[in-house]
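Revision sheet: structure tokens.
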Amino acid sequence: MHGLVDEVQQHVLRIQVRLFACRERLVAATDDEALHDLRIALRQLRSLLRPLCAIAACAGLQQRAAQLGRLSGPLRDLEVLQAYLRQQGLNSAAQLRQPRLEQGYAELLASAPLTQLLRALDDWPQQWREAACDGQLCGLDKLIQKRLRKDRKRLAQALLDPAHDRHRLRLLAKRLRYAAEAYPQLAGLPGGIGLQLKQAQSALGDWHDHWQWLQRAEAEADLQPCVPTWRAALQRAEQQADAALLALTTGFAQFG
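Predicted:
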């Protein structure tokens, strides 16, 4: 158990270093992947902490990470859209969104959620050690396994729902996959299920991007030339997502 307590602390510290580095990259505007990498680090932090939210030291940090995730999500969506527009040679539409993107970076860097998360990460190691001394971390492995079993059950039930919501399935698949990556020894997932989760998430992510872009096009007239291509891509993505979800449903059934 002591080993798991140390592993969690070391993992959080590694993510903290990455988050600080991503913030500095955003400040310096050195590359186009800084926000993406920040969100990956956030995702890993949230996946690590989510099974531990019954522990007060983790609940607060998880909440801070979730707030920054919600704040940065629309900015990342805009970043992905702008990259697509440039790739397609739609430079006027891409350039039109550049000021909004730059303003978004500045607002993110000055935001309370970012400041509060970084401050909370500084305070967390001491809180974690105190929780260990107080006996709050006894049975840590069982706590994690219980949460992962609940996540597996929730996804398996959603997959069997004939009226399933792709948005919800995407979220549930993401949660289970990333939690299993955070705790591979405790997840209890065969390798095949892990691959199927990754494939389903990828297909659902492609579907979600095109669905979201079509929603944008209803309000942003300069995106209208993209609509026929996006509708066709959305239909293909729906078919691919449904095939991936069917494979995942079969995998869960065999897994039992």
